[in-house]
Design brief:
The protein has 384 residues and is an alpha/beta fold. It is built from 17 helices and 13 strands. The protein folds into two domains: 200 residues, Glycogen Phosphorylase B (Rossmann fold); 170 residues, Rossmann fold, CATH 3.40.50.2000. The strands form two sheets. Strands 3-2-1-4-5-6-7 form a seven-stranded parallel sheet, with helices on both faces. It has a six-stranded parallel sheet with strand order 10-9-8-11-12-13, with helices on both faces. The two termini are 14 Å apart.
C-alpha cells in the first residue's frame, strides 16, 4: 500500500481549485494507495467528513496566524514520517512546512503550482500594476523579492513540480527550475450540468433576461470592472441583457459601488460564491460565459461552461489559449479591451448559429479533459 500525504491551503466546502483538486484525488485514489489530506479550513470539522474514503485532518483557520501555521506544521511533521511521498498544493502556507518536514524525514516532495504567489501578493498590496508576464521581467525588492526567491528555491528543491498548463510550465522554468522536474497534467473537469431548462433555471435564480455569466475571485486582474463599465453599451445591443458576476474577494465592495454609481441595479448582479450545484443552475440560465482575465494558469470555469453547453468568450492569456481555438469553440479577445469585448458579446448574442456551434464544439473540447485522466497521470507520477 503506497501512502500519499497531500497538504493544502483549502478544502471543501471552501471553494477553490486546490480544494476541489484535493477532494478529487482523495475520493478517486487507486485501490493500492492510501491518502491523507491535511488542510487549513474555515471549520475544524464537518459532519460529512466521516463519509470520506480517505483520512482528512482540518486545521482551523480561525486561530491567530502563527498559531494555525505552527499547528499545521506539527500535523504535517507527524504524518510525513509515515508517508511514502508528499504532494503540496501551494508553495507558502502548506508548501513551506511540508518542505521542511520532507527534508527532515528525507521524503519525496512534489508541489503543484497554479500561479505566481509573489505576483498575487504584489498586486494585492498595490506594489505592482503589472500583469504576471511583465512582472517576471522586472527587478523586485523587499518582501516581494523574498517571496519570489523563496518560491523558486522551494521548487528547485522539489522532486517534481506539477503544473496544469504548458503556459505555467514555461513560467516555472523561467524561475530556474529544471525542465525535467516540471510535469504538465491538465486539470480534469468534474462537473455535472443541470437538467433544468433555461427558463426554469432563470426562475430559480430569480434573474430574467438574456444572461451573461462571469465568475472568479474578485481581484483586480480578473477584469470585472471592465465588464461592468461596458454594460451601458451592451444594453444598447439588447436592453434585456444582464450581467451576473459570481464570486467573492477583496474587490467586491468596489464592484458593488461601481454598479450603484452607474445606475446598473437590476442590470448587473454580484451574487457571491456559489457551490458547483448552484453554478450548474447559473450556467443552465446563461446565454454566454465571459472571462475577461489578465491571468489564467488554466481555467476550471471555461471547462465547466463547455460541459454545460454555454458558449465562451475569454481573454487570450495564459492557459486559455490552450483550450480555446479562435472561432471554433469560442472567441478569444484582448484582455480589458473595450472594443473587443463589446464586439465579441454583440456577435455572439446576435448569432444563434455561433452560439450553437461553440456549445457543440465546447462539449467535445471539455471531454478531452477528464478527471479520470488527471487522476491517473497524477498518481502515476507520484508513484514513479
Amino acid at each position: 500500500m503506497t501512502k500519499i500525504l497531500i497538504t493544502s491551503g483549502i478544502f471543501p466546502p471552501d471553494i477553490g481549485g486546490p480544494a476541489s483538486y484535493a477532494m478529487t484525488l482523495g475520493k478517486n485514489k487507486p485501490k493500492d494507495f492510501s491518502v491523507t489530506v491535511i488542510s487549513y479550513s474555515s471549520k475544524s470539522r464537518y459532519p460529512s467528513d466521516k463519509d470520506l474514503n480517505f483520512n482528512l485532518i482540518r486545521v482551523w483557520n480561525g486561530w491567530p496566524i502563527w498559531v494555525k501555521h505552527s499547528f499545521f506544521g506539527l500535523k504535517v511533521l507527524s504524518h510525513v514520517r509515515r508517508a511514502d511521498m508528499v504532494l503540496s498544493l501551494n508553495i507558502w502556507s502548506a508548501g513551506f512546512p511540508t518542505y521542511i518536514a520532507c527534508k527532515i524525514f528525507k521524503k519525496k516532495f512534489f508541489v503543484r503550482v497554479v500561479g505566481d504567489y509573489a505576483w498575487e501578493v504584489a498586486v494585492g498590496k498595490k506594489k505592482t500594476s503589472l500583469l504576471i508576464d511583465d512582472f517576471q521581467k522586472v527587478k523586485k525588492s523587499g518582501w516581494i523579492r523574498t517571496l519570489s526567491n523563496f518560491q523558486a528555491k522551494i521548487l528547485k528543491k522539489a522532486d517534481g513540480v506539477i503544473v496544469p498548463s504548458k503556459y505555467l510550465a514555461t513560467l516555472v522554468k523561467g524561475w530556474g527550475v529544471s525542465p525535467e522536474k516540471i510535469h504538465v497534467i491538465y486539470n480534469g473537469v468534474d462537473f455535472n450540468k443541470s437538467e433544468l431548462t433555461k427558463e426554469e433555471a432563470r426562475k430559480k435564480i430569480g434573474i430574467p433576461g438574456n444572461l451573461i455569466i462571469s465568475s472568479g475571485r474578485l481581484v483586480p486582474w480578473k477584469g470585472f470592472k471592465m465588464l461592468i463599465k461596458i454594460m451601458p453599451k451592451i444594453l444598447e445591443v439588447n436592453q434585456f441583457l444582464r450581467l451576473i458576476i459570481i464570486g467573492d474577494g477583496p474587490e467586491r465592495k468596489a464592484l458593488e459601488s461601481m454598479v450603484k454609481n452607474m445606475g446598473l441595479d437590476r442590470k448587473v448582479y454580484i451574487v457571491g460564491k456559489k457551490s458547483k450545484e448552484e453554478m450548474a443552475v447559473y450556467f443552465a440560465a446563461a446565454d454566454m460565459f465571459v472571462l475577461n482575465s489578465g491571468y489564467e494558469g488554466f481555467s476550471h470555469q471555461i471547462l465547466e461552461s463547455m460541459v454545460a453547453g454555454v458558449p465562451v468568450i475569454a481573454s487570450a492569456v495564459g492557459g486559455n489559449k490552450e483550450v480555446i481555438e479562435q472561432g471554433r469553440n469560442g472567441f478569444l479577445v484582448k484582455y480589458n479591451d473595450e472594443f473587443n469585448l463589446i464586439e465579441a458579446i454583440k456577435g455572439m448574442h446576435q448569432s444563434l448559429e455561433i452560439r450553437d456551434e461553440f456549445a457543440a464544439e465546447g462539449r467535445e473540447t471539455a471531454a478531452k479533459y477528464s478527471s479520470e485522466k488527471m487522476i491517473k497521470e497524477t498518481f502515476k507520477l507520484l508513484n514513479g
